[in-house]
TrEMBL record:
Keywords: ATP-binding, Nucleotide-binding. The keyword Transferase does not apply. It comes from Kribbella yunnanensis. Residues 2-220 form the ABC transporter domain. PROSITE patterns: ABC_TRANSPORTER_1 (PS00211), ABC_TRANSPORTER_2 (PS50893). This is ATP-binding cassette domain-containing protein. The keyword Ribonucleoprotein does not apply. Gene3D superfamilies: P-loop containing nucleotide triphosphate hydrolases. GO terms for molecular function: ATP binding. It comes from the Bacteria.
Length: 220
């Protein structure tokens, strides 16, 4: 369960997230939309422990999120806008290296990487350097890397912005699968199709959050 309680994020005098509160239970997908600069990324970073919270707090299950390493160790996965990939490594290496560094069994890691690359339609591209891939392919590698972590929280920041409709569906299906196995998922998006596919839709504007559609706990 993600609990965001009265969270404010500021950069100097600029309030990017203004007293925002909501919960996302395991099994649910929340979409957050809003104009450029509305504070969507800052909200996701706050949940990920990647930016300091001025007031309020974020908890994920039993952990108060205070910094990125602790949040990551607790299974809070951030798929960042801009992808954050190592461009001179292959697509596969971008997936496997973080998992191997976490002490996972190498055979398991290879199998997991192949499965998730296939799920994003990149089964043939594992050996390609990231810098050789298109923008949309890189975005799918970033999604695959995030999914491969198997987190309890997945924060996807504009993760379908460069995708055609087929690949957008692939990514949405994958994120839904993650929710179905018990993850709490938050997607920042400008795409109404993505917002419609979520269980709830929040809208940010100048740091304030309102609801276009509240999370339905009755989702079948
Ligand atoms: N590191 C930073 N330092 C100072 N200001 C920042 C920083 N990061 C973001 N901001 C500002 O905070 C506000 C919210 O930015 P944020 O990236 O969270 O918005 P967003 O809704 O994700 O935008 P977009 O849809 O363009 O990605 C903007 O005014 C932005 O310029």
């Amino acid at each position: 369960m993600i609990s965001v309680a009265g969270v404010t994020v500021a950069y100097g005098d600029l309030v990017a997230v203004d007293d925002v509160s909501f919960d996302v239970p395991p099994g649910f997908v929340l979409a957050v939309s809003g104009p450029s600069g509305a504070g969507k990324s800052s909200l996701l970073w706050a949940i990920a422990g990647a930016v300091e919270v001025l007031t309020g707090k974020v908890t994920v299950d039993d952990l108060v999120i205070s910094d990125r390493p602790a949040a990551a160790a607790h299974g809070v996965v951030l798929i960042p806008q801009g992808n954050g990939l190592a461009r001179v490594l292959t697509a596969r290496e971008n997936l496997t290296i973080p998992l191997l560094a976490g002490g996972r069994d190498p055979d398991e890691v290879q199998a997991a990487a192949e499965a998730v690359l296939e799920a994003v339609g990149l089964a043939e591209s594992g050996d390609h350097l990231v810098e050789e891939l298109s923008g949309g392919e890189q975005q799918r590698v970033a999604v695959a890397r995030g999914i491969a972590q198997g987190g309890r929280v997945i924060l996807a920041d504009e993760s379908t912005s460069e995708l055609d409709s087929t690949n957008r569906e692939r990514v949405l299906t994958l994120l839904r699968t993650q929710a179905d196995r018990g993850a709490a998922v938050v997607i920042a998006t400008h795409d109404p199709t993505v917002a419609d596919a979520a269980d709830g839709h929040a809208v940010m504007d100048e740091g304030r959050l309102s609801w276009a559609r509240r999370l339905s706990v009755d989702r079948p």
